[in-house]
Design goal:
Distance between the termini: 19 Å
Number of helices: 8
Order of helices and strands: HHHHHHHH
Strand content: under 5%
Radius of gyration: 22 Å
Largest sheet: none
Number of strands: 0
Length: 242
């Protein structure tokens, strides 16, 4: 388990020393927050402009109408917050996927003691692979949603709850390990073998990140950190087995 602590330490070291790594870590969160702020503001204002006249036309008592209006607005705001909280992390995950792939590639070079690529070469690689990576991330999100639903069902069966916890932790680690697996063109069998050999460190760290990723806003900060962490951990394991 020592490698987990080493990877956590290296994660913050890489992020502090490599300015390009820091820049590409911040961009997805900024895009996601800006996008959701604009869309959320538009939806909320649209709801207000439709609901107020509709309430006024059905409720003649002005005081009762105002009271009902604010009640409806509060309910809608709560629902909107729930939807945003549930979808935001997944949306940012898709948006950040090309950046995460680039981050993972840089960290692999840093982990091996090699100098990372310069800004221009990194950006060219990002734009070249962006569509392929986003498409692959979309498939991962669908799979994660299916397996998350299965884990949720298992939670309702007390004796199977630990299995649900392990599945959730494994899912968390796999979605970040996949950047390394894809970049090295590893087939399904090789990926499964890698996870089987390193089941304990991958699952334990996946459990830790699963807890952190449930905290709104904080999860955006830990998204690039998870990419850096798992790339460094994977690289450690690969060097040990080579």
């Amino acid at each position: 388990m020592k490698e987990i602590l080493v990877s956590f330490k290296n994660t913050f070291t890489f992020l502090r020393k490599d300015k390009i790594l820091l820049f590409f870590s911040i961009i997805p969160a900024f895009i996601g927050i800006s996008l959701y702020a604009l869309v959320g503001h538009w939806i909320f204002n649209k709801f207000l402009s439709i609901s107020r006249p509709l309430i006024d036309s059905h409720i003649q008592n002005q005081n009762l109408g105002v009271l009902f209006y604010y009640f409806i607005v509060a309910i809608f705001g709560f629902i909107l917050f729930f939807i945003v909280n549930w979808t935001f992390f997944l949306a940012v995950s898709v948006i950040s996927s090309p950046f995460n792939d680039l981050i993972s590639a840089r960290v692999e070079l840093l982990s091996g003691g090699n100098p990372p690529e310069d800004w221009e070469k990194s950006w060219r690689k990002l734009t070249k692979r962006a569509f392929k990576i986003i498409f692959n991330e979309g498939k991962k999100v669908i799979l994660i949603l299916i397996l998350t639903f299965m884990a949720l069902i298992l939670n309702f069966i007390p004796i199977l709850a630990p299995i649900s916890l392990v599945i959730s932790a494994a899912l968390m680690s796999v979605q970040f390990l996949d950047y390394n697996w894809s970049r090295h063109d590893m087939n399904v069998r090789s990926c499964l073998n890698d996870f089987r050999k390193n089941f304990l460190p991958y699952t334990v760290s996946g459990l830790a990140f699963s807890v952190l990723m449930t905290i709104p806003i904080v999860n955006l900060l830990f998204l690039p950190l998870a990419v850096i962490f798992y790339t460094n951990l994977w690289n450690q394991k690969r060097n040990q087995n080579s």
